[in-house]
C-alpha cells in the first residue's frame, strides 16, 4: 500500500502544479517515472489506521523533480519516508523538459526538509553469504494498453525471489510468522536505469551483503534483454503485530548462514 499511497500523492501534486498525469498520458508520455528511489519504513500501519502523505518538492531540474513523501499516522507519527527523483518520458524514450511555468512553480514551492531515508552505504561483510536469482515473464492486462512494467512490481519481484530462496533452504515464511513478521521491506535505495517492457523476461539477481539481528541487507540487480534495468540495495527487517521493528529470531536468519 505504501506504493499506492505514494502514486496517488504524486498524481495529486502533479495536478496541483498543472502538469497532470492525464495531460501527459494523452500525449503518450510516461508521467513522473521514478529514476532514483530511497525509502525507509519506521512502522507498518495496522488495519483501520488513517494514513496521511505529505509531499514536498525538494529540488527541480530541467526535466526532473525530486519529491519527499512523508507518511504519518493519525497522531502525526512517522510511518515511512520516501525520497524520489521523477522524470517524464516522451514516446521516443527521452526525458521531457518540464513546462516553464510548472518548473518555476515547483521551484517556488521547494522546501529543504531534512530526512534520513534509504540504505546507508553497505559493503560486503567478508562473510561467505549466499546469492540467488529468479526470472519473471512480464505480462500486462491487454485492457490497460500499457507497455512498461509498473514501478511497484519490482519490489514484489524481489520479495518473490527471496521467498523462493527461503523455500529452497527449507524455510517456510508462514511457519516463522507469529507475533513477529519477518522479511518486510525496511530501507531501500534503488536506481532505475532503463524501463522493463511487457513480454520481456526480467531476471532478478540477489547478493546477500550483511546479516544481523536487525536487518538482512541484499544487493539487487534487475536485467532484461542483456542490460541492467535497476540496481540497488534493500534492507529487510522484522516487525511485530503492531507494526514496530523488532529483532529477527535465530531461525529466521538460519537460511543465510552457509
TrEMBL record:
It comes from the Archaea. Pfam families: 4HBT (PF03061). Residues 13-78 form the Thioesterase domain. This is Thioesterase domain-containing protein. It comes from Haladaptatus pallidirubidus.
